[in-house]
Amino acid sequence: MGDGQRFDPSAVTDVARQLSKKPFVPLPNDLPDAFSNLNFEQYVSIKSLSQPIWSTEGRGIALEPLHRGFVFNNAVDLYLVEDGGVRRLAYDPSNFNFNGINIPKDLKDIGFSGFRLISHPAEGQPFNFAIVQGATFFRALARGQNYGAIARALTLKPAEAKGEEFPIFRAFWIERPSIGSNSITIHGVLDSESTTGAVRMTFRPGDMTIVDVETTLFPRVNLEHVGLGGMASTYFYGPNDRRNADDIRPAVYESSGLQMLNGQGEWLWRPLQNPETLQISAFVDNSPRGFGLLQRERAYEAFQDDEQRFERRPSLWVEPLGEWGEGSVQLLEIPTDAEINDNILAYWRPRAPMAAGAEIPFAYRQYWGWSSPERPPLATVAATRSGRGSTGRRRRFTVDFVGEMLGDNWPKDLKSILTVGPGTFHDLKLLPYPERKTVRVAFELDPGNENACEMRLILEAGGKPISETWLYRWTP
What we know:
By secondary structure, the protein is mostly beta strands. It has helices at residues 9-20, 33-36, 40-44, and strands at residues 47-48, 61-66, 77-82, 85-88, 96-97, 114-119, 127-133, 137-140, 150-152, 155-156, 168-175, 184-191, 195-204, 209-219, 226-233, 235-237, 252-253, 257-261, 267-271, 279-286, 290-294, 315-321, 326-333, 344-350, 360-369, 380-388, 395-402, 415-421, 424-433, 438-446, 453-461, 464-465, 469-474. The chain is 4% helix and 43% strand.
């Protein structure tokens, strides 16, 4: 659907369907050296000279196309849908201030790398709330936050020996918002060697930004390893993992843990780590009710970082729409020696492969904000700490649970249920602090000669769980 044509959402699906019947064609490497060789500082110095699209029309949401350059080399076609018609957004270098970058004199239409979405509420200050740029990546945040976790419209074969496959968005059709609305709908076509897909995303910014994602995949080949609802984040070091951390800051991470609400209604919490070697965890489930990478630490004192402000990074929670069946939430923890790397990846992996030539629809809702929209009606983990144990390879752990039920009237039959395998635990203690509505569980892990130990901890009272389940994998 190009200039002057009428827009039909079903035509986007038809484009993806027809594209899947043809061999994959990589995007051309046509970006001038003046832009492809930029460093990060040079790239972000490129500023738009134009008002964001629709910003003066009282539509609640405006659009800013983003320049190509740095690592954002691929071009994506942007089409505006206005009054039912389609208009291609053309690139014009006169719309940008290049701040000293020596651009070619005969620069033609090189397209864009993506776009930024800006909330223009009737009352209050405008704020950037989403960026769609690079591969099939996009970010969002709530009012008052900084960008952090990044979502993926599709994840293919991560951490496999042959290498991960990164799908790309080839084109977007962006519907002009209605006057005074607080939502914007975007249609996209994604493409890769293995599959194509049609994606519809509806963004609703605010104190919690909500994104509905509807996708139909058209595999070219049998897909054995597919990730749905994928998200990435950074965990460099923190109280439970200070490997090689020689830094004035007490912690550096965008997300503190992976939370899951499984199909059986059990709330699980898995603190994140920066391991010595790649760690892959699979949490087997049937019809999950939600999962996400959450930032639970909201105190400036926890990070002491005046520039990054990690305490303002969004939590990202994914809620499947419809039944996703059997599969597993997969967590990849990748070793990193730099805080700029997104070394954490989480996604839902269906158990059944997706067959070549099939049409596979799925949908989910994302919540970007200060916490997940649905919280456990239980005590939750506030902190996990680890350090050297009393002897040999032993490690000392403390896990703090917080909740209203742990206040002055905390249950006197409260007990902690800890399991370790392989390995053993010692000196298990339960330390209540009702004035802080906190219970600390302390213990030592003895891994023996093992190089990986799985731990599971929960608080019980009256024979019933009163806390979420803490999960942890220790590795040297």
